[in-house]
């Protein structure tokens, strides 16, 4: 399914261009970080990639020459939507639409719960879980969907360091299973730890796209420099040089 | 005055057959109407909440307006439909318990649908996008959201039952308040009060009040149980 070819993506909302002729070719395997200031259009970009919003203009295509079928996708949001039911029932929603047998569904859900360390909590009320555990429910859902492309929208933004570390381990495990991951994060330490390359988004456009190390150390664009200057103090906390 | 109360209390204590019969008829009619109203109103409300179709805004306005239908007008319309020359006259339902069930169903179905629409739409705002991201179809999302808000919906259902059991206009017009046949608590209370049989009216009033209080207490208990259990 690589590369991901995004061409001229334009999306108007509230009288302005949230995505403004966004063009990028994402060819690296592993994790690609999407960074940029609040309101830059990062969430909207992920939504468009998942088909949750329809851009007014532009195309999204996959594979060499853009001829591959759309990949299997999963999306983890900053705050996970949970229904008033048990953990296992919440995870089962992720495979409800899959054309597989009930037995296979149950097996996938059980494996996913095992994978994220929630097997023992399967029968607990999902909305009673801690924030970190709720995000693990989100990753169990993603895992159960067996995605080729995983979209992560600030998945650890509201978590403490220990829970963040747990989630990062799951992200790495999914990557190692061969899933292409797009990660939106303001945690530049996390970006440095996990991502191969980074796309810097500003005002709905690509300001810069390249290897993470280079962008974090030597941003070429004014937009990237301005954003990193604001966020860098965070990075030194995270122990990144 | 005191005698009236004493006699009313006696009727209740000895489980007077007239009181019991009338109360049972009321319950039968209103429970049946509420059940049918939910079977129709919940799916309709849920689909209107999440489906996008032309004219949806109009449907929402109409549903909300129907929610406040005057009972006596519903009675009149159902009367016309069920009367011998009406479109449903051949059913021979007029002045039967069946007619009262039909009238109360017409009364509470829009109420259930409108409340469901509001409750499910709020839940959809919170969960809808993530359910779509998991590939769920409109029908699957509707089902999931209805399940999620089931405790709030139960409260709506009890509200509908409360409206049905307490209304007088619709059942009076289509049922005719025939003794031993279509007499309900509300029609009996208004009739017996006029006739001067105050103890019977008062006894029925107590039963009706008790039912309304129990229903409301049940709604409150359900709500707090749900909040404790599921957050
Ligand atoms: N449906 C919408 N209607 C109006 N404004 C929107 C809509 N979606 C996004 N926006 C606006 O577009 C901008 C970018 O949003 P978003 O993609 O969430 O940015 P980011 O995730 O980078 O912070 C924000 O200013 C947001 O308010
Ligand atoms: Mg965002």
Question: Brief overview, please?
Answer:
By secondary structure, chain A is an alpha/beta fold. Helix content of chain A is 37%, strand content 24%. Chain A has helices at residues 42-49, 87-92, 102-115, 131-145, 161-176, 188-194, 212-217, 222-237, and strands at residues 4-13, 16-26, 31-35, 57-62, 73-76, 149-153, 180-184, 197-202, 205-211.
Describe this structure in words.
- The complex is a heterodimer of chains A (241) and B (231).
- Chain A is an alpha/beta fold.
- Chain A has a domain at 4-72 and 147-231: Rossmann fold (3-Layer(aba) Sandwich).
- Chain A contains 8 helices and 9 strands.
- Chain A has helices spanning 42-49, 87-92, 102-115, 131-145, 161-176, 188-194, 212-217, 222-237; strands spanning 4-13, 16-26, 31-35, 57-62, 73-76, 149-153, 180-184, 197-202, 205-211.
- In chain A, the strands form 2 sheets. A 6-stranded mixed sheet of chain A has the order 5-6-7-3-8-9, with helices on both faces. In chain A, strands 2-1-4 form a 3-stranded antiparallel sheet, with helices on one face.
- Chain A starts with a strand and ends with a helix.
- The relative contact order of chain A is 0.17.
- Chain B has 231 residues and is an all-alpha fold.
- Chain B has a single domain (23-185), classed as MetI-like (MetI-like fold, Orthogonal Bundle).
- Chain B contains 10 helices and no strands.
- Chain B is flat.
- In chain B, 42% of the residues are buried.
- The A-B interface holds A 47, 50, 52, 73-75, 77, 80-81, 83-85, 93-94, 96-98, 125, 127-128, 141, 145 and B 126-127, 129-137, 140, 144, 147-151, 226, 229-231.
- Adenosine-5'-diphosphate is lined by residues 13-14, 18, 38-44 of chain A.
């Amino acid at each position: 399914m690589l590369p991901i070819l995004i061409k001229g993506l334009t999306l108007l909302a509230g009288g302005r261009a949230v995505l403004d002729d966004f063009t990028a070719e994402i060819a690296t395997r592993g994790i690609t970080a999407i960074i940029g200031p609040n309101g830059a259009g990062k969430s909207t970009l992920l939504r468009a990639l998942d088909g949750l919003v329809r851009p007014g203009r532009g195309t999204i295509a996959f594979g060499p020459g853009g001829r591959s079928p759309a990949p299997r996708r999963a999306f983890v949001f900053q705050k996970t939507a949970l229904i008033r039911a048990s953990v296992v029932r919440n995870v089962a929603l992720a495979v409800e639409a899959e054309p597989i047998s009930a037995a296979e569904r149950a097996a996938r859900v059980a494996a996913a719960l095992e994978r994220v360390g929630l097997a023992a909590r399967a029968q607990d009320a999902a909305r009673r879980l801690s924030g970190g555990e709720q995000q693990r429910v989100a990753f169990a859902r993603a895992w159960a969907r067996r995605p080729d492309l995983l979209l992560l929208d600030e998945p650890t933004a509201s978590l403490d360091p220990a829970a963040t570390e747990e989630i990062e381990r799951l992200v790495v495990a999914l990557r190692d299973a061969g899933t292409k991951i797009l990660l939106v994060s303001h945690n530049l330490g996390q970006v440095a730890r996990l991502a191969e390359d980074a796309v810097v988004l500003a005002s709905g456009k690509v300001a810069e796209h390249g290897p993470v190390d280079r962008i974090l150390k030597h941003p070429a664009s004014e937009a990237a420099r301005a954003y990193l200057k604001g966020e860098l103090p965070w990075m030194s906390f995270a122990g990144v040089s | 005055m005191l005698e009236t109360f004493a006699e009313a209390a006696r009727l209740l204590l000895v489980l007077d057959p007239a009181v019991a019969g009338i109360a049972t008829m009321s319950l039968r009619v209103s429970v049946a109407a509420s059940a049918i109203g939910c079977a129709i109103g919940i799916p309709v409300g849920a689909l209107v909440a999440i489906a996008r179709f032309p004219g949806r805004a109009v449907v929402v306005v109409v549903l909300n307006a129907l929610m406040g239908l005057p009972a006596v007008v519903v009675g009149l319309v159902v009367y016309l439909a069920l009367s011998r020359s009406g479109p449903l006259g051949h059913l021979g339902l007029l002045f039967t318990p069946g007619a009262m069930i039909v009238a109360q169903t017409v009364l509470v179905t829009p109420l259930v649908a409108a409340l469901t629409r509001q409750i499910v739409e709020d839940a959809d705002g919170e969960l809808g996008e993530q359910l779509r991201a998991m590939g769920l179809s409109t029908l699957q999302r509707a089902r999931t959201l209805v399940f999620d808000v089931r405790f709030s919906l139960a409260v709506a259902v009890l509200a509908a039952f409360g409206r049905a059991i307490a209304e007088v206009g619709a059942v009076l017009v289509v049922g005719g308040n025939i003794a031993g046949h279509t007499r309900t608590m509300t029609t009996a209370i208004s009739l017996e009060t006029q006739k001067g049989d105050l103890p019977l009216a008062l006894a029925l009033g107590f039963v009706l009040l008790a039912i309304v209080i129990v229903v409301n207490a049940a709604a409150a208990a359900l709500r707090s149980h749900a909040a404790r259990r599921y957050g």
